[in-house]
Amino acid sequence: MRLIRNSLFVILTYIVFNSSGYSQGCSDAGFCTIDLLKDHSMPGSEDNLKNTLKAGLTYGVGDFSINVISPYLEYGNNISENLSLSAKVTFAATSGELNSNSNFSDIFLTSSYQLKKSSTYNIALVSGVKIPLSTSNIKDGDQPLPMNYQSSLGTFDFILGLNLLYKDLGISIAMQQPVVNINENTFFSSDGVNSPQAKYHSTNSFIRKGDILNRVSYNLTVLIDKFSIRPSILSIYHLADDSFTDQNDIEQEIDGSAGLTLNGNIFLIYNISGTKSIELVVGSPFITRESRPDGLTREFVLGLEYKMLF
């Protein structure tokens, strides 16, 4: 445990001093921020309350200095001692050299079932679906926009994972697999050397492959029952190259879009009371995929969340 604490402390220090650097990454298709896969805290007595309400806001800077603000609202309910359900709706506002727009993103419906639990450990099975609220066809007038400016990937996804907790050590393993594609994006990268569109990937009829997630975190208590720090390592492996349909109606793979993204995150949690808390998160990538046509690139991410139990 001491080795884990020391390793995560090094990660925390690295993120704090490098979150404004030029590395790119994150690549979260949605399941990284699902509470049932993100929260690595041991349940307390206040968790006997059945309802949880969360409101949050994340800010990130993507490729080509695109600003992305993503508010969300999440409701959770403890149906029984072992079963919890959650519903989350997300929104995205983007601004950059090509356009500024905002739109609803996705709905996440998830469940968590406790397989094993004791005073020192918990093992939960997490499953869910992502429902898109956009077909990724937002345009600037008649000009199609790349995926970087879209509010959703335009896919119905299936999510399955395990959330493991032993004392202060947390581990999440999960997969997110698109099963139905309603993406209607029609963007083609421009051949013009001076055209800003030339920098972006063509994403006409974009098809995105699945991901596997692994998160390891450790909870460091600073003030008992008041303040804690949770550094974590988050890896996302994109299982295969994405693809688009070219102007000859031929599907083309996007080389380099498969592969590993490795991120560091720090969660700062302040308990206002036994039923209310505020969480601040900062994240930055260490390793990235060569190509990220899905537009999920972030140089860094800052997030603020308010949680209430009732």
Description:
The protein is mostly beta strands and 310 residues long. It contains two helices and 19 strands. It has helices at 2-18, 35-38; strands spanning 25-26, 51-61, 67-78, 83-95, 100-117, 121-132, 139-140, 143-144, 155-166, 169-181, 211-218, 220-223, 227-238, 243-245, 251-253, 259-271, 276-287, 297-298, 301-309. Strand 5 and strand 6 (121-132) form a beta hairpin.
Descriptors for this entry?
310 residues; mainly beta; Lipocalin; twelve-stranded antiparallel β-barrel; two-stranded antiparallel ribbon; 2 helices; 53% strand; elongated
Describe the SSE topology.
Elements: H1 2-18, E1 25-26, H2 35-38, E2 51-61, E3 67-78, E4 83-95, E5 100-117, E6 121-132, E7 139-140, E8 143-144, E9 155-166, E10 169-181, E11 211-218, E12 220-223, E13 227-238, E14 243-245, E15 251-253, E16 259-271, E17 276-287, E18 297-298, E19 301-309
Antiparallel strand pairs: 1-18, 2-3, 2-19, 3-4, 4-5, 5-6, 6-9, 7-8, 9-10, 10-11, 11-13, 12-13, 13-16, 14-15, 16-17, 17-19
Q: Regarding CATH, which class? A: Mainly Beta
Q: Can you give the mean pLDDT?
A: 87
Helix count from the secondary structure assignment: 2
* Fold-level CATH name: Lipocalin
Which structural class best describes the helix and strand composition?
Answer: mainly beta
What amount of the residues lies in strands? Answer: over 45%
Radius of gyration: 20 Å
Helix content: under 10%
Low-confidence stretches: 6-25
